[in-house]
Amino acid sequence: MTVPDSASRIVVTGLGVVSPLGIGIERYHESLQSGQNGIQPVDVPWDTGYEVNHAGIVREFGPPCFVADNNSATGGRAHRFAQAACSMAIDQAKLTAECRRRCAVVVGTTWGEALELENNAQLTAACPDRGTDAGDVARGHPFARLSANLKAELGLEGPDFVVATTCAAGNHSISMAVDLLQTGTVDAALAVGVDPLGYLVLLGFSRLLLQAPDTCRPFDLNRNGTILAEGAGALVLERSDEAKRRNAEVLAEVAGCGLSCDAAGTFESNAEDVRSLQIAAQGAFRQAQCKPQDIDYVSAHGSATKLNDRKETYFLKSLLGQRAYHVPVSAIKSMLGHAQGAAASLEAVACVLSLQHDVLYPTMNLETPDPECDLDYVANEARQCRVNTILSNAFGMGGNNAIIIFRRWTD
Amino acid sequence: MYARTDQVFVTGCAASTCCGVGVAPLFARFRRGLSSDSAPPTNPCSANRQGFRFPQITVDISQYVRITRTENELTRQLLAAVESDLAQKFQGLSASERDEMGIILGNTSGNYTPYCQFYSTGLNDGYIRVNPAHLPATLINYQAVQLSNALGIMGQSTTISSGFSAGLDAVGHAMMRLRLGKDRAMLAGGIQELTPYDHEFLQVKQLISPRGVIRPYHGTRDGTVPAEAVALLLLERQHPDDGQHCKALAEVLGWASATGGPGEDPVARAKRVIDGALRMAELEAGEVDAVFPSANGTCAGDQLEIYVLRRVFGNRLSSVAVYPIKSVVGECLAASGPLQCIAAVYAMNHGADPSPHRVKARSDALQPARRLAPCIHALVLCVGLDHSCSAMVLAKA
Questions:
Q1: Within its chain, how far is the Cα of B142 from the centroid?
Q2: What was the pLDDT predicted at A142?
Q3: How many CB pairs under 8 A join A and B?
Q4: What is the DSSP letter of B217?
Q5: Closest Cβ opposite residue B122 in set A136, A164, A203
Q6: Do residues A13 and A238 make contact, with C-beta atoms less than 8 angstroms apart?
Q7: Can you tell me the mean pLDDT for A341-351?
Q8: Considering A86, A99, A103, A167, which one is annotated as catalytic?
Q9: With bands split at pLDDT 50, 70 and 90, how would you rate the model's confidence at B247?
Q10: Are B107 and B159 in contact (CB under 8 A)?
Q11: Which of A166, A346, B36, B150 lies at a CB distance of 3.0 to 4.6 Å from A233, suitable for a disulfide?
């Protein structure tokens, strides 16, 4: 395996997490390692098809406020998650004022401030002449303003963007941040994934029969869908020469990023058609200058739907060949739920923690093996194991695929 | 730095504007000349959509193969533009070439209308009345994915926002990926549906012209005219060692972008962005002979832009050609920047069209210009009304 010259290697120097398993890196790591369950019943004021709704909620920020209130602080739940995660990541990276002047912010999300959009729709339905009030206008659009407001609050001065590729958005934000760093546009970049839980996504997933009643069981024979969640994950990325110059602690390397689109109708996927996933993987391997045989651990998308899990298993077998049966695969959505645009970022943080702590996080609730999903999924118990190169998969609704390769840092 | 830096060329353009579907009606309108005092053409705003008036785009879906009746308006406009202007480019592409192509679009507001409809149906009519097949159309990235599906493009399919300059930023991101050798070609640009957020942002800030006329830089300007549009550039990369293999309309040399809060000096920010784009292009301001500015007819926006241009060009400003295209297409927010790029590409390939102007030395008004230098290096500038700012440098190929 060869690696690019040091000037173009991208490294992780800071992490931040706001999740249903806790806020902060240490708590997140301990919760994942001990297989805790972040999914709980949640009050939803309208019908979703379930008597009791379950979701992965960030308890520390209170429950999501689905019902509109003119005075409510619902505007900004995504911002508050992202701001907390980014502050942690910046503190860990010890970004100086000079770094912040040339630091970008890239935020991956599905709809941005979804609760605010929904609340506005409720208020407008109740009073059609209401229009958008000056306060809403001053805050800016619930989608576009996420990155600009974060940047202003954190004192960063580089470019900022929001990228909206649903469940793959977290990995897309990492890929865009890498592009900005490799072209020398910026010297540091915050790659963030964030989404709050809204009623529309619960409604949509339930109607599509993608939402399970109470448990997320990736790769289990009796799996019947995912459980939606919310949260934020943030990573500070830098070029390795910059990190070295600052004497920053390097946590891991972002070795390669690969993106693709299925280019098929949203509902026309089949388990054996993995060509688009292979295109994304090839892109990642090309950048990382490594081969599939270098992969020794997989962070799966593992959304626990019948089709996706079969498809992902088929993809890993096509990629790794017979080695697939010996490469461990973890699906941490089994504990967190599916945090939509934040999911891939939360999984990216977990990948870096795996490299740091030499641990493979478990796939929980895997009780009945599925003959069509017959790989080593690190079932139900974490495993101490030193790995070097991790493949992190994220597959979004509509066919957006983003694959990141994380590598143990060696100078 | 990353070892490989390829050249990036514009090899095609596509647009849907209030002038019509495709670049042909837009270029025909350019040939009639830009004016510093005109109203964008309107299929007269007799049909109010979402409760406000704006110049609309009409798409006759029977004319297009790839558009179905179930598509929403914005998707129809996008697919119609691509089918009108780029169908031939895609016909001969192999599967491997499509695998190496990507799409990146800029959009300020997402798919607001389908989002609200889906949500309201669930809220008002009940869970069981919601059609689950409508969920994908609520996604912000829906149009990019539909374009991938229609063209069989299997590279990335992404939508970004950085506010009103999102479209130009999408082109900038595409340029970066091509320079790094990560994709072979990219379709990049902006798409804009006028949502209540956008329209009321402009209204609350009193940025809409009561007379429905755009007068860029004019002393009596009184606001802008918001409009919808779709504008795309087809970008392809070429390594200097490979020899030229694509018919280039222009080369993309540099790009920079920033957003800021109301407290930051906007002139300094815009100057910083322009300097960044010129630095990436390895050009000095003195080598720029044409500017395609925002010039949207708002009092504050135009004033800011003139200050910035004077700081960048100094006394030379009156000899730089200025093309105020929003007097033709309206203020198209995320689609504006790519439309300005398309105008730059047109000017580079069609001599003096579309009628350049220049800034008068004593006042800041525009006047039609004669005998200006041909457009070799163009600066495209988006100074957004929401504090976003983006600049791009193009060169004649």
A1: 19
A2: 75
A3: 227
A4: T
A5: A203
A6: yes
A7: 98
A8: A167
A9: confident
A10: yes
A11: A346
- Mean pLDDT of the A131-141 span: 60
| CB environment B141-165: b (16+ within 10 A), e (fewer) | bbbbbbbbbbbebbbbbbbbbbbbb
Phi, psi of A300 (to 5 degrees): -80, 155
The mean pLDDT value for A363-385 works out to 97
* A338 is annotated as an active-site residue: yes
Q: Which of A346, A345, A208 is nearest to A269 (CA)?
A: A208
Identity of the amino acid at B11: T
Task: Give the pairing type, strands A231-239 and A53-56.
Answer: unpaired
The answer, yes or no, to whether the previous bond of B354 is cis (omega within 30 of 0) is: yes
Question: What is the structure's pLDDT at B363?
Answer: 67
Q: What is the pLDDT of residue A405?
A: 98
Residue B333: count of CB within 10 angstroms of its CB = 34
Contact residues for A380 (Cβ-Cβ < 8 A; gap 6+):
A35, A362, A363, A364, A365, A366, A367
Nearest Cα residue to B313 out of B247, B254, B364, B259: B364
Q: How far apart are CA A391 and CA A318, in angstroms?
A: 14
Question: Considering chain A, what is the average pLDDT of its residues?
Answer: 91
**Nearest alpha carbon to residue B175 among B231, B246, B238:** B238
B156-201 pLDDT, tens digit per residue, is 999 998 889 999 999 999 999 999 989 999 999 999 988 777 877 8
Active site annotation includes A326: no
Q: Nearest CA to A400 among A249, A213, A260?
A: A260
Residue whose C-alpha is closest to residue B353's, from B344, B363, B364, B362: B344
Residue the block writes with tokens 């009561």? B210
**Alpha carbon distance B366, B296 (integer Å):** 13
Cα A379 from Cα B237, distance rounded (Å): 46
Give tens-digit pLDDT for B21-68: 999 999 888 888 776 666 665 544 434 445 556 667 778 878 887 787
- What's the mean per-residue pLDDT of chain B? 86
Q: Pairing relation of β-strands A10-19 and A383-384?
A: unpaired
Side chain identity at residue B107, one-letter code: N
The more confidently predicted of residues A16 and A67 is: A16
Closest by Cβ to B109, choosing from A141, A263, A283 = A141
What is the per-residue DSSP string for B42-84?
A: -S-S-S-BTTB--------GGG-SS--TTS-HHHHHHHHHHHH
Task: Quote the Cα angle for A371-A314-A304, to 5°.
Answer: 65
Question: Per-residue confidence at B242, pLDDT binned at 50, 70, 90?
Answer: low
Asked if A262's CB is within 8 angstroms of B162's CB, the reply is no
How many other C-beta atoms can be found within 10 angstroms of the C-beta atom of residue A137?
18
Backbone phi, psi, residue A78, to 5°: -65, -40
In this model, does residue B251 exceed pLDDT 90? yes
B220 in helix, strand or coil? coil
Contact B123 A264 (CB under 8 A): no
Q: Under an 8 A CB cutoff, do B149 and A141 touch?
A: no
CB B386 within 8 A of CB B160: no
Global confidence as pTM: 0.95
Rounded to 10 degrees, the C-alpha dihedral A291/A293/A294/A299 comes to 100
**Complex ipTM > 0.90:** yes
Chain center to CA of B33? 20
Chain A residues close to B157, C-beta within 8 Å: 165, 261, 263, 398-400
